[in-house]
Amino acid sequence: MAKIVGVLFLFISGHFANAQEANITISGNAKTTSEFFEELEEASGYSFFYLKDWLGDVKIDQDFQEASLFDILTSVLSGTQLNFYISEKENRVFLLQNSIVYDQLPGNFFGITDTTSTQESVIVNQNLPPPAFYKEATVQTANKLPLVRIGRADRQDLKSSYRLSGKAMNSRTGEAIPDLAIRIKGSNRVAITDEQGNYNIELPAGYNVISTSAMGIRDMEREVVMYNDGSLNLNLEESLEQLDEVVLEADAIRNVQDATTGNEEIVSEEAKNIPLVLGERNILEVAKALPGISSAGEGASGLNVRGGKTDQNLVLLDDAVIYNPTHFFGIFQALNPFTTERVNIYKGAPPVEFGGRLSSVFDIETKNGNTEKISGEGSIGPVTGNLALEFPIKKDTSSLIVGARGAYADWILRSLDEESLSNSQASFFDGIVKYHHKFNENSEIRGTAYYSKDNFSITSDSLYNYSNRLFSVRWNHKLSEKTNGTLLAANSDYRFGIDFDGESNNDFELDYTINESELKYKLRTRLNDKHNLDYGVSAKYYSTNPGSIDPKNSESNITPVDVADEQGLEGALFIGDEFKISDKFSVDVGARYAFYAAMGESTQYQYAEGEPKSESTVTDTLNYKSGEFIKTYGGPEARVSARYLFTPDFSIKASFNNAYQFIHTLSNNTTVSPIDTWKLSDLNIKPQMGYQAALGLYKNFNDNMFEVSLEGYYKLMDDVLDFKTGADLLLNENVETEVLQGEGKAYGVEFLLKKNKGDLNGWLSYTYSRSLYKFDGDSSEERINNGEFFPSNFDKPHDISLIANYRLTRRFSFSMNFVYQTGRPITYPVGTFRFNNADYVVFSDRNKYRIPDYYRLDLGFNIEGNHKRNKLAHSFITIQVYNVLGRNNPYSVFFVTEDGEAKALQSSIFGIPIPSITYNFKF
User: Any idea where the TonB-dependent receptor plug domain is (predicted)?
Assistant: First the structure.
C-alpha cells in the first residue's frame, strides 16, 4: 500500500474564510514554538495537531496585533520546512512536514481524464506534479539510510523538478570525495562530484532513489522526497572490500559524459598489480601505457605527450611545480606511491586555470591523512624502501600524513663484474608531509611540503646531485550557496650540482638553481542549471641562477664563473563556463590572457638583423636595472570543448586550445638529463606558442564493463627551441647564440580499449603519431636539413601497450605488461673525407635513420595476505620479472673510431631479465 506524504483532505472551497476574519492578539516574548502554539490554541479556539519533535527549540520573538490565524501561522512557520492546513468546519489546524494539503485530486488520478470539469486547480490546469507518494517499506541493499525530505512545498511555486546540491565526504577522514557518481535510480541522469566533493543534480518532484558509487567508497542508496530545491550532504563509508581491478567504473562514465577531450585519470592503486622494473610502483610509468604518452627511451626521464617536448609538460604536486619528478635518470618516480592519491592528465584542452605549457598538465594529488586512528603503509624491495604514516591530529577534523622513501642501490653496482663501476654510487631519497584541517563543512586548508635528492657517480672523479623542494598551501572555502573559492600559494625550487675531483689540478664545484613562487585565486559559481563558471587570477615569479663554477680548493686551476641571475614575472586572468545546452549537448568554453615580462637586473645584446647571432654580430649592449622590464610577451588563449551524446553511453567530442610557454629547457642531449638548465624568455628568446585541435568518439559496452575511445589530434607549434651542432650551453652567458627557434607539427590517432570488471581486466592502447620540426634560418648555420621538416628525437610512429591482470582467487593473481614501439630517429655517419691530412666524418641529415624497434614483456605474480580482520597488518607480495624475453633493447647508438674505422656501438639499460620480490604491508 502507498500512503500520501502529506495528509490528503477533500473539502469545498472557502476553507480559510473564517480564519481570515478572526482577529487574534498574541505575543511571542521568547517563547518556544510549542509554548506559543499552546497559547495560540486558546486565543483562536482551534485545536492543533502536530508532533513536538518537529518544532525543536526555536524561540518566537514576534508579536501579533489583531492578526488572522492564517497570517500568524504563515509568519511563524516561514523559514522552516513545516506547512499548515486549517479546517474551518472542525476548527482544527494540521501541521505537516514539507508537504501541502491538496483540495482535489488530479483529473487523471484514477486513470480517467476529466474533460468536463471547469473548476480551477493548480494541479490539473498547470500540469504540475501531483502529491508525492512513497512505499511504506523500502529495501536498500547497499547502505540503508533513512528517507530524507528536501525543501518545503510552496503552492505558489510548484515545479516538475527541483535542484539537489551538497557535498560528498568520507565519514572516516572527513575529506571530500571527488569523482563520485550520483545516479537517479530508473533514470540515465548522472552527476559527478568535483574535486571539493560538491555536486548538483536535478530530481523529479516527489519520491526518488539516488545511488552513489566510487572507488574505495561503499555503494549507497537513499530515498529522497523532493518538495523544493535543497541540499543534502553525503557522509559515505569506505569500502571494506579489497580492490584489485585496474580500472574504475566511474572513469568510464566520465569518459563518455565529460565535455573535455584527451583527459586521463590514474589512481595510485592502479600501479599495484602492474609489473614494473625492480617491483617499484610508478604512476608515471603507468601513464606511458596510455595512448599519446611516451618517452624517448627506456630509463629516460621526462615524458613526451602528443609529439611535444619534455619541457612542454606542467607537472604539479599538490599545486606546486615539480621540475624533475623522477629518480635515477627516470627509472624510478620521485613520488611516494603510498602518499599519492591520483594524477589527472590533460592532453587536450586543459582546465582554464592551467597555463604556461604547450603539451599537457599532470596534476598529482596527495592523500589526506586518517582523522580517526594511526595507520600506515609501506614496502621493502630489492633497491628501495617506502613508508607512509597517517596521524589524526584532532579526530574527524585534522590529520597529518608523512611519507619517506630511499634507495640502497650501491650494493648492485659494487656486485657487478665491471671494474670501472666498482667505485660508483647511486642513491636517492624523498620525503613528503601533508597537513589537512577541516574547519567546518564550508572551509578547509591543506598544506604540503616535499623534498627529494639524488646523488650518483658513474665515474670515480665526479659526483652529480640534483634536488627538488616545494611547498604549497591551499584554502578551500564556500562563499555562498552557489560560489566556492580556492586560494593557492606555492613555491618550487630545483637545483643540480657537479662535484669534480680529478687527478689533475682542475677540481671544481658547479651549481644551477631555478626557483618559482605562485599565488592563485580561483572561484567556481553555479549560476543556474545550465552554467557553471570558473574564473580567477594567478601570478608567478621566476628566479634562476643559470650556473656558477668555482675551484674546489686553492690548488685548482679553474677560473670562477658566475652567470648573471635571471628574473621573470608571469600572470594570467582566466574565465570558463560549463554550458549545458541540453541533456545531450554541452560545451566548455574558456579564455585566458597570459602575460610575461623578463626583468632586470640584466645585460642584453642586440644583433644585426638577418645575421646569425654571434659575438661578431652584436650591434648594441643594453643594461637593465633591477625590476625593470626587459621585454614583455603575452596574448589570449582559448579553451573550447564540446560533447554530444548520441546515447547515454556513446558520445562524440571536439576541442581546440592554444597556449603560450615562457620557459624552456636547454639541452643538447637526446633525452632529458638532470643537468639540463631552464631558460626564461628574454629579449632574444621568444616564448613558444602552440595550437591543438582534437576530435574523438567514446563508447561504453555491457554496463560499463568495456570502454572504447578513438581520438585524433593535430598540433602546430611556433618558436620551439633546438640547438646548433656542437652547441656549448652550460655556463654560457650568451646562450642565445647557440639557440635556434623554429616550428613544429604533430598529429596522431589514439585508440584505447579498457575492460573494467571481472577476473580479467586491463587495457590495450595503440597510438599512431608523428612529431616533426623545421628550422629554416637566414643562414646555413641556422638551418637544419636544408630547412625541411624532420622527425624529432622522440618521433615513434607506432606505440602499443597491453596491460592485463587475471585474478585466480581473491588472494592470487597474474599480471602482464607488454610494450612495442617504433625505434626512435638517429643521425648516422654516412661517409668520410680527408682534408689537410685529417679525416672527417660526413653525417646524414638529422634523424634520417632509426634505431631498432623496442619491445618488452614483463610478468608478475601477486599474493594477497589472508583476509582475517584481527591482525597486525595486511600484506601483499609481488614477484615480478622485468624484460622476461631478455630483449637487448637499444637505448642509444653511438659511433667511435678504431684503427681509422668508424664503428657503431649500442648501449642498453636493461638487456637481461630483471627479477624482483617486493613485500608490501598496510596497517
Answer: 279-357
Report pLDDT digits (tens) over 518-542.
999 999 998 888 899 999 999 999 9
Q: What angle do CA 886, 889, 893 make, to 5 degrees?
A: 145
Cα(369)–Cα(391) distance, integer angstroms: 6
- CA distances (Å), origin 590, targets 12, 257, 283, 642, 655: 57, 19, 29, 12, 11
> Which distant-in-sequence residues (6+ apart) come within 8 Å of 408 by Cβ?
383, 384, 385, 427
Residue spans of the domains in the chain: they are 2-100, 133-241, 263-922
pLDDT, tens digit (0-9, with 9 covering 90-100), for 460-495: 667 888 899 999 999 999 998 899 999 999 999 999
What CA–CA distances, in Å, run from 88 to 91, 416, 732? 5, 99, 95
CATH of domain 133-241: 2.60.40.1120
Q: Could you tell me what percent of the chain has a pLDDT over 70?
A: 84
Q: How many CA atoms lie within 13 A of 654 on its CB side?
A: 2
Cell of 809: 582467487
The answer to whether the CB of 719 falls within 8 A of the CB of 660 is no
Count Cβ atoms below 10 Å from residue 659 Cβ, excluding itself: 26
- The closest alpha carbon to 82, from 98, 58, 61, 62, belongs to 98
In the predicted structure, residue 10 carries a pLDDT above the cut 50: no
The yes-or-no answer to whether 133-241 and 263-922 have a common fold is no
How many residues are listed for the chain in this entry? Answer: 923
End-to-end CA distance of the chain: 49
> What grid cell was written down for 577?
563556463
Domain 2-100 fold is: Phage tail protein beta-alpha-beta fold (3.55.50)
Residue pair 597/632 in contact by the 8 Å Cβ criterion: yes
Mean pLDDT of 843-848: 83
CA-to-CA dists, residue 539 to 350, 573, 593, 778, angstroms: 18, 9, 12, 37
Q: How far apart are CA 263 and CA 285, in angstroms?
A: 17
Q: Among the listed ranges 453-462, 691-700, 858-867, which one has the minimum average pLDDT value?
A: 453-462
Question: What CA–CA distance (Å, rounded) separates 391 from 173?
Answer: 11
Coil, strand or helix: which one is 19?
helix
pLDDT of res. 598? 95
Choice among 30-44, 220-234, 680-694, 703-717 with the minimum mean pLDDT? 30-44
Across the strands, what pairs with 327? 332
Contact indicator for 791, 741 with CB cutoff of 8 Å: no
Q: How far apart are CA 649 and CA 636, in angstroms?
A: 35
Tens of pLDDT, residue by residue over 702-759, are 888 899 999 999 999 999 988 877 667 777 788 888 888 999 999 999 999 998 888 8
Nearest Cα residue to 600 out of 566, 575, 569: 566
Tell me how far apart the alpha carbons of residues 327 and 324 are, in angstroms, rounded to a whole number: 8
Would you say 725 and 739 are in contact if contact means Cβ atoms under 8 Å apart?
no
Query: Residue 283: helix, strand or coil by DSSP?
Result: helix
Nearest to 286 by CA among 272, 305, 298: 272
Task: Tell me the pairing of strands 198-204 and 161-170.
Answer: antiparallel
Give the separation between CA 806 and CA 859, rounded to whole angstroms.
Answer: 11
The answer to whether residues 503 and 483 touch, using CB atoms and an 8 Å cutoff, is no
User: What is the C-alpha to C-alpha distance for residues 374 and 203, in angstroms, rounded to an integer?
Assistant: 40
Nearest alpha carbon to residue 769 among 282, 308, 177: 308
> What's domain 263-922's superfamily in CATH?
TonB-dependent receptor, beta-barrel domain (2.40.170.20)
568: phi then psi, degrees, rounded to nearest 5: -150, 150
Please answer whether residues 291 and 898 qualify as being in contact, where contact means their C-beta atoms are separated by less than 8 angstroms.
no
CA distances from 409 to 114, 281, 891, 915 (A): 85, 17, 21, 15
